[in-house]
Amino acid sequence: MTSTVGGAGQLLAISDLHIGYEENRTLVDKMRPDSDDDWLLVAGDVAETVADIRWALETLAGRFSKVIWAPGNHELWTHPRDPVTLRGVARYDYLVTLCRDLGVTTPEDPYPVWEGPGGPVVVAPLFLLYDYSFLPKGCTTKEQGLTYAHGTGIVCNDEYLLHPDPYPTREAWCRARVAETERRLAALPDDLPTVLVNHYPLDRHPTEILWYPEFAMWCGTGLTADWHTRFRVETMVYGHLHIPRTTWHDGVRFEEVSVGYPREWRKRPEPPGRLRRILPREDGTQ
């Protein structure tokens, strides 16, 4: 665990940049900190190709005091447009090395401590995946859930592009990631709260407003349902759902910080690409 002391600054967050869309790339190009002490949390789905991922993270790392990245499913796709054809763990490891070359903190690095306003808190980027435990109503197995999803036509592209190699399944990879991350979080000092940054919510409740509820299968795991209370979470930062909002669960703040696709953010009244302030809290509390 590393510590950076600063008397000012903000802990900011964003996710689902999807810079394959030119409008979203322009949003990233305009993102700036408010002070030299600002940190930026990037909760996944930067892009699908290594070149785009590198451009976005290098751009942001050159502006913010610290950039902390947690991977989304899109970074892990082996996309036909990407000349980097690595799959599964090998692709993830490649992206971790890329981030380290850029000075970007990853889930494989020591967790930094935010010492600015609202701190100190441990900021932990996570990579956990999902295990099909958020099943559609009436389904009790992954197979039933997938059959239902195919019947509705709502099937995540992960089924075709996110390979778990060398694990036999994505859920096996998820279980391994959860076990290792749980061990690391349990070893943190008991007197420090945490900000957990994951592409998916740690609890199922944010998925309850999905327009297509069957998509929840690709949105997390029940194995983390108590982590927000167990690991002294000050704020749980996530994306993936493309429904930016604040919810509270067991007294813990959950922040969905997605930009989303242009067709989605054009419908919203607020300007797109706004960095969400995690600490100090936007309601004025610390």
Description:
It is a single chain. The chain is an alpha/beta fold and 286 residues long. It contains nine helices and eleven strands. The protein has helices at residues 22-30, 50-61, 73-76, 88-102, 142-152, 158-161, 170-186, 227-230, 262-265, and strands at 2-4, 11-14, 39-42, 66-69, 112-114, 121-125, 194-197, 233-238, 245-249, 252-256, 276-279. The strands form two sheets. It has a seven-stranded mixed beta sheet. Strands 4-3-2-11 form a four-stranded mixed beta sheet, covered by helices on one side. Strand 7 (194-197), helix 8 and strand 8 form a beta-alpha-beta unit. The longest helix has 17 residues, at 170-186. The radius of gyration is 18 Å and the shape is globular. The chain starts with a strand and ends in a 7-residue tail after the last strand. Residues 1-6 have low confidence and may be disordered.
Note the overall shape. globular
Widest sheet: strand order?
1-5-6-7-8-10-9
Total number of β-strand segments? 11
Q: What portion of residues belong to β-strands?
A: 15-25%
- Rounded average pLDDT: 95
Helix proportion range? 25-40%
Order of helices and strands: EEHEHEHHEEHHHEHEEEHE
Could you give the topology of this structure?
Blueprint: E1 2-4, E2 11-14, H1 22-30, E3 39-42, H2 50-61, E4 66-69, H3 73-76, H4 88-102, E5 112-114, E6 121-125, H5 142-152, H6 158-161, H7 170-186, E7 194-197, H8 227-230, E8 233-238, E9 245-249, E10 252-256, H9 262-265, E11 276-279
Parallel strand pairs: 1-5, 2-3, 3-4, 6-7, 7-8, 8-10
Antiparallel strand pairs: 2-11, 5-6, 9-10
Helix pairs in contact: 2-4
